[in-house]
Write a structure and sequence with these properties.
By secondary structure, the protein is α+β, with helices and mostly antiparallel strands. It has two domains: about 5-125, Phosphorylase Kinase, domain 1 (2-Layer Sandwich); about 135-330, Aminoglycoside phosphotransferase (APH), C-terminal lobe (Aminoglycoside 3'-phosphotransferase, Chain: A, domain 2, Alpha-Beta Complex), CATH 3.90.1200. Helices cover about 40% and strands about 20% of the residues. It has ten helices and 14 strands. It has a five-stranded antiparallel β-sheet, covered by helices on one side. Strands 8-10-11 form a three-stranded antiparallel β-sheet, with helices on one face. A two-stranded antiparallel sheet has the order 1-2. Strand 10 (about 220-225) and strand 11 (about 225-230) form a beta hairpin. The chain is globular, with a radius of gyration of 20 Å.
């Protein structure tokens, strides 16, 4: 099935392996993009396309002098004060040979600029495929990549607080609860009780460093069966390493809308991770709490974005019930064999 991405002037058919997962909240005209590109030494704008899936930022794929780039306009949850952290992290990772988009400086040496009164950047384009249905080997590669990432970020000097912690879950849940959508009535009470439980049970001290905090299948690109790059670092923060792994497990190891757990995929991820950094006994003992917390974080944000999505935004809403199923699975299965 081909994904059709529309531009005002023309329509492009993307290759079958290109499954883009971003959004368009800010509509730009060709002249606005051309003027922005002219601030950079990347050549003449040849074409641009809107990237329409996802829920966070606005993204356009650009081609300038035959080279692909991504123009990102920051929306919603990304705070302007956090942008320098994200930029410095990606520059640090690039300097250490970790494959991720590299921020491009404009003619004045600035990476963070503005368009339509919103902060925006241009970054390099990562080639490769996103995996819809992973296999065991791909899960092992993901585990290795996370282990490499955590070993690198241990030495990154800057820190950023998690902007989607339990306090934020409570705020988003309260907002959704007031709205009281009929479709989600059955999960409201369960979600309230789970947040209360997690708040009382949350660990105080586990091995920590800078984590990606959003390593979904959409954000990892494969090429020749190896990971060729990782994108979307805009939830990165100083947090428990096991929290990063928990987000990955919930996305990569469940099938059938979150109702079936693939234990062999889970073991493959952990095996890959342990080849670079061994999980501690304390991390393993608290794994269930972090897996449940990672499920609640996605459940409550999906619930919020599903209910309060902008009517004029070109965006594909994601089903919150998938992560309700994942949460219920972890509530019933508190010990995982590693």
């Amino acid at each position: 099935m081909k994904l059709i991405i529309k531009k005002k002037m023309f329509t492009l058919k993307c290759p079958n392996n290109l499954k883009i997962n971003m959004a368009v909240f800010t509509k730009l005209k060709e002249e606005e993009i051309r003027k922005f590109v002219n601030m950079y030494n990347i050549g003449k704008l040849e074409s641009f396309t809107e990237i329409i899936e996802g829920i966070e930022n606005t993204n356009y794929k650009l081609i300038c002098n035959g080279v692909k780039y991504i123009l990102t306009i920051f929306e919603k949850r990304v705070k302007e004060d956090d942008l320098p952290f994200f930029i410095e992290l990606k520059l640090y990772l690039n300097s250490n040979k970790f494959k991720c988009p590299k921020p491009i400086k404009n003619n004045e040496g600035k990476t963070i600029n503005s368009i339509k009164n919103k902060k925006a950047i241009i970054i390099s384009f990562i080639e490769g495929e996103k995996i819809d249905i992973p296999n065991i080997q791909e899960c092992n590669e993901v585990g290795k990549m996370i282990g490499q990432l955590h070993n690198l970020t241990m030495n990154f000097k800057q820190k950023r607080k998690n902007s989607l912690d339990i306090d934020e879950w409570k705020i988003l849940f309260h907002k959704c609860n007031i709205k009281n959508e009929d479709k989600f009535k059955n999960l409201y009470n369960d979600l309230k009780n789970e947040i209360n439980y997690l708040e009382k049970s949350w660990p105080k001290d586990l091995p920590s460093g800078i984590v990606h905090a959003d390593l979904f299948k959409d954000n990892i690109f494969f090429k020749s069966k190896k990971i060729n790059g990782v994108i979307d670092f805009y939830f990165s923060c100083y947090h428990f390493f096991i929290y990063d792994i928990s987000i990955v497990v919930n996305d990569w190891c469940f099938e059938k809308n979150g109702s079936v757990f693939k234990s062999d995929y889970f073991k493959s991820i952990i095996s890959g991770y342990n080849s670079y950094r061994n999980l501690t006994t304390e991390e393993i003992n608290r794994f269930n709490i972090l897996l449940r917390g990672a499920a609640v974080r996605i459940l409550v944000t999906r619930l919020h974005d599903y209910i309060f999505h902008p009517e004029d935004a070109i965006v594909i809403k994601k089903d919150p019930l998938e992560y309700y199923n994942i949460l219920k699975w972890h509530q019933k299965n508190k010990v995982l064999e590693i």
